[in-house]
Automatic annotation (TrEMBL):
Keywords: Membrane, Transmembrane, Transmembrane helix. The chain crosses the membrane at residues 65-86, 106-124, 136-153, 159-177. Residues 24-56 are annotated as: Disordered. It comes from the Bacteria. The keyword Transmembrane helix applies. This is DUF2637 domain-containing protein. Residues 27-49 have a biased composition (Basic and acidic residues). The keyword Transmembrane helix applies.
């Protein structure tokens, strides 16, 4: 086979192949540019959608928080307004009556009003981070009461009784509103419902003296409000708050009669205090014996009166008998070896136990 080589044809073919390769490369570049522009457009559309979602979320959060924000602003205005009015009144009083220089008259309301607010905000700050509030609230009310008394006094002296009451109320109103808001926040943090809060408020409104007694019990014993409320009613009426009016009246009569009898018994030595607990000096038997036959009934035995030491030792001895550490009728030596003390006291306890647990005639015969 013979191949004819034509240089001109080879150059033509090479040029055609080069043009074809260049056209293919240009097509690839154009496709790459289009893909890049499509990705950029898609990315721009995604960014616009993301910004739209963010704006919608911000608007939804703002709409959701708007009532709380408006209410918080209203609370702040109501709390600050009495403070500003009381501050201005006391500054004028310091300048006009106390003759404090005009440039320093603001120090008088600062000294009078700011103390209660410092205690209030410190209590709020501690409560928010879970720290104990301590006595800050009591000092807050004490300082607010002092400021109210000063405001009422100079308002009455300068403008009359009504003005004095109004100025005194201004010193208490802001602190009271702040305390109400703080109590609501604390109740929400503790998980208390609105019904419980309204119930406590109604109790303070309808039973102020009983609510005060319950608050004293809660502080003294460390109880929560429901338990302190129950304890206050039992302490006052002898029955709980769920008792009917008839039962409360009956319980009042019973408590009065029992208190009178107990006072009389205490005056006659019928009670003693052991380890902070009030006990009767004449104690009942540990076991209730079975009633003997009618033929064996004997004259009842009167329990003798014990001295104070013997009464205390009798209680310890009976506890030891119940625990099995002493026999039911221990001897004076056994009591003295177990608890110590004088032999006369141990003999008194032995005789008292013998009176409580007399030996039956059948066992004596045996």
């Amino acid at each position: 086979m013979t191949t004819i080589y034509d240089p001109r044809a080879a150059r033509t073919i090479a040029k055609a192949e080069a043009a074809k390769a260049q056209a293919q490369a240009e097509a690839v570049r154009e496709q790459t540019r289009r893909d890049r522009e499509a990705r950029r457009a898609e990315q721009a559309r995604e960014e616009r959608r993301e910004r739209r979602r963010e704006r919608q979320q911000r608007w939804a959060r703002w709409r959701k928080a708007a009532p709380d924000t408006a209410l918080a602003g209203l609370w702040a205005a109501l709390i600050v307004a009495p403070l500003v009015l009381a501050w201005d009144a006391q500054a004028r009083f310091a300048a006009a009556v106390l003759h404090v220089p005009a440039g320093m008259s603001w120090l008088f309301p600062l000294a009078i009003e700011a103390g209660a607010w410092v205690c209030a905000f410190e209590a709020h700050r501690r409560a928010r981070r879970g720290a104990p509030v301590g006595s800050l609230l009591r000092w807050m009310w004490l300082l607010a009461g002092i400021a109210a008394a000063i405001n009422a006094a100079h308002g009455t002296a300068d403008y009359g009784l009504v003005a004095g009451l109004a100025l005194g109320t201004l010193s208490l109103l802001g602190v009271l509103l702040h305390h109400i808001r703080q109590s609501l926040d604390a109740a929400e943090a503790d998980g208390r419902t609105g019904r419980e809060i309204s119930q406590r408020f109604a109790r303070w409104l309808m039973f102020p003296w009983m609510s005060w007694r319950a608050a004293r019990v809660a502080v003294r014993v460390g109880l929560d409000h429901p338990a302190a409320w129950e304890a206050a009613w039992i302490d006052r009426h002898g029955v709980g708050p769920a008792a009917s009016r008839r039962d409360r009246r009956l319980a009042k009569v019973i408590v009065k009669r029992q208190a009178k009898a107990d006072r009389k018994a205490a005056e006659n030595g019928g009670f003693t205090i052991i380890n902070g607990v009030i006990l009767r000096t004449t104690l009942p038997a540990l076991d209730v014996p079975a009633a003997p036959p009618a033929a064996e009934l004997s004259t009842p035995i009167e329990q003798r009166k014990l001295s104070r030491r013997a009464a205390a030792l009798l209680e310890s001895t009976r506890a030891a008998i119940a625990a099995g550490e002493l026999p039911e009728r221990p001897s004076a030596n056994a009591i003295r070896r177990r608890f110590g003390g004088a032999m006369e006291t141990a003999q008194e306890v032995r005789d008292a136990l013998a009176d409580m647990h007399p030996v039956a005639s059948g066992s004596e015969a045996a």
